[in-house]
Amino acid sequence: MQSRLDSKAPSGPIETRWDRHRFGMKLVNPANRRKYKIIVVGTGLAGGAGAASLGEMGYNVLSFCYQDSPRRAHSIAAQGGINAAKNYKNDGDSIHRLFYDTVKGGDFRARESNVHRLAELSVNIIDQCVAQGVPFAREYGGLLDNRSFGGAQVSRTFYARGQTGQQLLLGAYQALARQIEAGTVKSFPRTEMLDVIVVDGVARGIVTRDMVSGKVEAHVADAVVLATGGYGNAFFLSTNAIGCNATAVWRAHKKGAFFANPCFTQIHPTCIPAGGDYQSKLTLMSESLRNDGRVWVPKSAGDCGRDPAEIAEKDRDYYLERLYPSFGNLVPRDIASRRAKMVCDEGRGVGTELEGVRRGVYLDFRDSIKRLGEAKIRERYGNLFEMYERITGENPYKTPMRIYPASHYTMGGLWVDYNLMTTIPGCFAAGEANFSDHGANRLGASALMQGLADGYFVLPYVLGNYLASAKLASVDEGHIEVKKAVADVEERIEKLLSIGGERTPDSFHRELGNIIWNNCGMARSAQGLEGALARIPALREEFWQNLKVTGTGESLNQTLEKAGRVADFMELGELMCRDALARDESCGCHYREEHVTEEGEAARNDSEYQYVAAWEHTGDLSKPTLHKEALEFEYVLPVARSYK
Amino acid sequence: MSMAKAITLSDTTIGKKVVMAVTGLVLYGFVVAHMLGNLQVFMGPEQLNGYAKKLHDLGPVLYAARAVVLVSLVLHVVMVVQLLSRTAAARPIGYRLKKNQTTTYAALTMKFGGLALMLFIVYHLAHFTFPGVSMAAGYKHSATDVYANVVSGFKVPWVTAIYVVAQLFLGMHLYHGAFSLFQTLGLSHPRYVEKARFVAQTLGIAVAAANIAMPVAVVAGIVK
Amino acid sequence: MSKTMNLTLHVWRQKGGTDIGGFETYKAPEISEHMSFLEMLDVVNERLLADGKEPIAFDSDCREGICGMCGLVINGVPHGPNAATTTCQLHMRHFNDGDEITIEPWRAAAFPVLRDLVVDRGAFDRIIQAGGYVSVNAGSAPEANGLPVAKPDADRAMDAAACIGCGACVAACPNASAMLFVAAKAAHLGLLPQGQPERYERVKKMVAQMDAEGFGHCSNHYECMAACPKEISVDFIARLNRDLMRATVVERDHEEKSGGAG
Predict the structure, then answer these.
(1) Which ipTM value was assigned to this complex?
(2) Domain boundaries in chain A?
């Protein structure tokens, strides 16, 4: 089985790997490209950019999204920025440094070749986006501005106010719109992919449901690209959009695509805490707030219900400053998140009590306001403060913000080789949907970079190479495998509608999310994971016995949409826990309580776990097969992360 | 970008608005000139009738000016009819509850006020120009004694009432029209926008007040 | 402790595009002031579902005010009573116990209702497809700092680019006009040097498509700007008018000559 995990990563000097690999790839003659049909699912940075670029090359592209417009994919919500190794600040940045930082930041669980390619392409992305009219922030001289982000030692982050994701996505969306007008791309909004069609072991299309008419349909193609984002909504509460789901990747997984590192999920430390059991999502606030805000909780649990203004300085525990004197409040995301959980678990959290626990810590600007003045703080964070006040009704200039970590990004995803192809030939995965570049922890401002690198500069090459080399038999809508895939989807929809039980999809999703969050969230233990692995299958069984969905399949039915997505999270959640249990080490975001250094930090075990865990679906959800892709580090030698 | 379908300005809703703005400006000019001419009623019959004669003696120039005004009026009306027939279809099902937040009464009454002004213009021409309807009892409209026409024409209270109401509509129409003109012709600038609103408002009020002053002065016996 | 309230909702229900539709009244008891407006509707929907009824369909996605998917006319105001706030960011603390709330979909012929409060805003996509882009293929871009952009221009372009395409401008306009949306996109690209080569063609095409979609005309009520959750200025409409005049009156029509390389 090891042979199925050929990463196809090139060898030799890392600086020229991508160049040499590209030169070795086969090309499709421009006149022949329109004869190839490529399906791209998802219209975020990876999918939107990919579909547009493939359209520009002349391929016949079908683009799908569940939103009402391709412009609304959740990449739009990214606030902070996008990294690129331009070295405009003359502060010592380089492609190699970005590569180095990303491998190290990922705690040595990413593939070096991929990461280096990402760093190389980062500079082209900025050029491309500026040419499209992305209004990046500029200095008075008219040149592009950069800032330092997420604790990076160099200023390499490009940004457009707090709306970088939105502006980059609009650039990709406009490029896509241009191709729709040109006729190379056909757009299918409000259309959800419900299965991938595999014929003779090769991906040949997808089955979709029109979310307005309910029509289930097959789309046959020569290649399928899944750019459907991450699975953070497995936790129910996350910073993802309400509609973000894992159905596309999970369906592909069940048809033969290996799922890599599903337990690598990033928890973002600065989100607004949940206010009650009605909470539908969590809102992230830029972690730049930690530059001037001080994180604390009361020293004594007895003070937690009191007005923070009444808690004396000596009774406050600035725990990050106490534990990490040199990085203080700016420790990496995973550490800040974990420490917040720990103090809340000790009973020292603040804010609303939910299920008997207060889950929040203070992020206090009192001292910065005293030092810099309110005007300066308003200039730096005014929009974030406004957003906080809009949501919580509290004025953060007067009373400290309350924050708590929330699921934010998933580093895990479909296993892909260097060509972004999954273990189903002809089925590709790009952006957050794949696993390839961030290892066990993603650095700030790197998600946008990866999505666009995959979309603009990798997919156009690797698709050509695949199509030029593949010998594809002719398949049409009447093919038996196509008909079977459509029938399977219809049957599943019918099943969801006909259970006639008592519980709503959301109530199952909430319960599932709780199990995963508590056992496979910021801290994991064998005992907790085993418990979750017992509870999830039981919950899944109840789901299929006791689900309630009203309405019909032949109309716009949001309950039915949710039910289908929850059904897939029920299965994926189990795999997340299984992966977390199998990875008996701590690394990056994956914090196993059994593997902790003396200082309470994650203890990696390189001799046994320096690999990508790629899971194969076997037909039995409780017995997936684990394949290991060994990781080799020739350029960045593994060291322990330390932020003391 | 491939070649655009060659569109002309007036094909577009924006272009139609531009035509309305330009013709509106001509009509605004006419209204002001007309008002200034008429205000001579306060300077006595010789002055007003003399002015009327001077105008008449202009001959072809007067007809050319009238033609420009008439063409402007026709274009103004044709454009608005075209726009309104489009826009009537733009929201076939309305709201049960709709609260406006910024718009003005003047802006909201442009349609109705414009229609009222159209009817008023027809009446006004019939009243003072030809054939000279609804004059005071026993008075016969004269083609040369404009002053007497005015005095006699406004002695009828309901006629004066029509004029007063029409001038209120005119004032609002001029206010929103003049203010919109800057925006429609792309001349609006954030630095001057509030000043433009003030000027448009003041001029609208001034024109309406001056025009109302005439019939009211007749009714009050100031002009006799 | 947090305040709760009992509300009465009058909600537009419509099974599909061809259904006539009408208002239904629902009680929404014990609503926490900390809920967002959409979370309040989630709660109502969970109860409807528990009663075996079909939940109220409404659009939302990011629920943090940036994707532009949500949008309800709440008591006669698109996105509700708070300025610069999308429906998903509106919180129930701005309502009072006993309030009656009327909830309607965006109303415009160009935004047909698909179900309940869900409308089809494909017209906006088609306007962008008509020309709301810079024609630059992946891979052909010059060095990003090769062309400086004056900071005020970049900032103004960003002001315009902040549009989230939610359609509140259309919903608020007494004429159901899409001018603010079109003006914002045209200004975003037209203010940057990268957008200059196609500036006038772009405006012509976008305006022609806007008209073809059946939106009403602009009569300067400025309701759009008041409803816009991103507070996009009507100054951009003046700019659009200016650019269209120049495009149609001054600029030559572009004619493609046939014949290729070699």
Answers:
(1) 0.97
(2) 2-264+411-469, 267-407, 485-609
Q: Does residue A223 contact residue A38 with C-beta atoms inside 8 Å?
A: yes
Domain edge (last residue) among C80, C95, C115: C115
Identify the residue among B8, B9, B101, B201 best suited for mutation to test binding to C, counting C beta carbons within 10 A and taking the highest: B101
Domains in chain B, CATH or no CATH each: 9-92+102-219 (1.20.1300)
Selection from A189, A245, A197 nearest residue A564 by Cα: A245
In a domain, C105, yes or no: yes
Query: Which chain A residues touch C136 with a CB distance below 8 Å?
Result: 128, 131-132, 175
CA-closest candidate to residue A170, choices C67, C118, C207, B2: C67
Cα C171 from Cα A415, distance rounded (Å): 45
- In this structure, is residue C256 part of a structural domain? no
Q: Do C135 and B107 touch (CB under 8 A)?
A: no
CB contacts, 8 Å: C38 with chain A: 280
Q: How far apart are CA A371 and CA A528, in angstroms?
A: 45
User: Tens digit of pLDDT per residue, chain C (262 long)?
Assistant: 578 999 999 999 999 989 999 999 999 999 999 999 999 999 999 999 999 999 999 999 999 999 999 999 999 999 999 999 999 999 999 999 999 999 999 999 999 999 999 999 999 999 999 999 999 999 999 999 999 999 999 999 999 999 999 999 999 999 999 999 999 999 999 999 999 999 999 999 999 999 999 999 999 999 999 999 999 999 999 999 999 999 999 888 776 677 666 5
Where does A485-609 sit in CATH, by number?
1.20.58.100
CATH topology of domain A267-407: Flavocytochrome C3; Chain A, domain 1 (3.90.700)
Q: What is the Cα–Cα distance from C143 to A30, expressed in whole angstroms?
A: 26
**Distance between CA A511 and CA A311 in Å, rounded?**
36
At C193, which CATH number?
Answer: 1.10.1060.10
| Of the residues C90, C115, C140, the one at which a domain ends | C115
Give the Å distances, CA to CA, from C136 to A30, A576, C141.
18, 41, 7
pTM for this prediction: 0.97
Task: Mark whether C87 and C128 lie in a shared domain.
Answer: no
Contact residues, chain C, for A88 at CB < 8 Å = 145
What is the Cβ-side half-sphere exposure of residue A345, based on CA atoms within 13 angstroms? Answer: 9
**Which long-range CB contacts under 8 A does B129-133 form with residues at least 24 apart?**
none
As for how many domains chain C has, the answer is 2
B contacts of C244 (beta carbons < 8 Å): 9, 12, 14-15
- Same-domain status, C81 and C142: no
Determine which of C136, C147, C156, C236 to mutate to test the interface with A (most A C-beta atoms within 10 Å).
C136
Domain with C227, as residue range(s), is 122-250
8 Å CB contact of C222 and B102: yes
Element spanning A204, H or E: strand A202-210
Instruction: Give the fold, CATH level 3, of A2-264+411-469.
Output: FAD/NAD(P)-binding domain (3.50.50)
Q: Please say if A251 is a catalytic residue.
A: no
Residue C261 is assigned to a structural domain of this protein: no
One-letter amino acid for residue A607 of the chain: S
Q: Which of A333, A402, A524, A592 is catalytic?
A: A333
CATH of the domain at C24: 3.10.20.30
Q: Number of residue pairs across A and C with CB atoms under 8 Å?
A: 231
Calpha distance A406→A360 (Å, rounded): 11
Q: Does C3 touch chain A (CB under 8 A)?
A: no
State the nearest Cα–Cα gap between A229 and chain C, in angstroms: 13
Whether the CA torsion A367, A370, A372, A378 is positive or negative: it is: positive
CA distance C69 to C66: 8
Structure tokens of C77?
């105001």
Within 13 Å of residue A58, how many CA atoms lie on the same side as its CB?
Answer: 10
Question: Hey, is A181 helix, strand or coil?
Answer: helix
